[in-house]
Design goal:
The chain has about 140 residues and is mostly helical. It contains six helices and two strands. The chain has a two-stranded antiparallel ribbon with strand order 1-2. The longest helix is centred in the middle third of the chain and has 38 residues. It is elongated. The mean pLDDT is about 80.
């Protein structure tokens, strides 16, 4: 059960089966999109990705991407964007540790806050010093 559809401008008729025509239709595209966004579709896609990552083809594709320029740029951008999160986490951890230790020993919240602020300020200063050291070593003037 097929029908004739003319090719764009050439005038020759192409025999396209009903299944092929449906596969190209907007209705099919909408149906596929709805399924992909459903719970079953998401679960299927997640399981498929997990299995594909274990195959030789999947591993080879991952290696190829990581070695490509795009993969390297993506990794670099990701690391730079998440750098601040790690630093904030370190400040928070230092603050919390100092606060808890002082509050446990003294029972004074204000003294504990001051100790926490001092600890996080120390971490900030050490990070600034480390960043300045890295900048000074990476940007060296070229003398003739």
């Amino acid at each position: 059960m097929g029908f004739k559809a003319s090719d764009s401008g050439s005038g020759e008729a192409l025999d396209i089966s009903h299944d092929k025509a449906y596969a190209r239709s907007e209705k099919r595209k909408a149906s596929n999109k709805a399924w992909a966004q459903s719970q079953r579709g998401k679960a299927y896609h997640k399981a498929y990705q997990k299995v594909y990552a274990q195959t030789e083809k999947g591993k080879a594709a991952k290696r190829a991407y990581e070695q490509s320029e795009k993969g390297k740029a993506s990794r670099k951008a990701y690391n730079q964007s998440h750098q601040g999160n790690y630093e904030r986490k370190a400040y928070r951890k230092a603050y919390r540790k100092a606060y808890d230790r002082v509050f446990k020993n003294t029972g004074d919240k204000e003294q504990a806050r001051i100790a926490g602020r001092q600890a996080s300020a120390f971490i900030r200063e050490s990070n600034k010093a480390k960043n300045n050291e890295l900048e000074s070593t990476s940007i060296s003037p070229v003398l003739p």
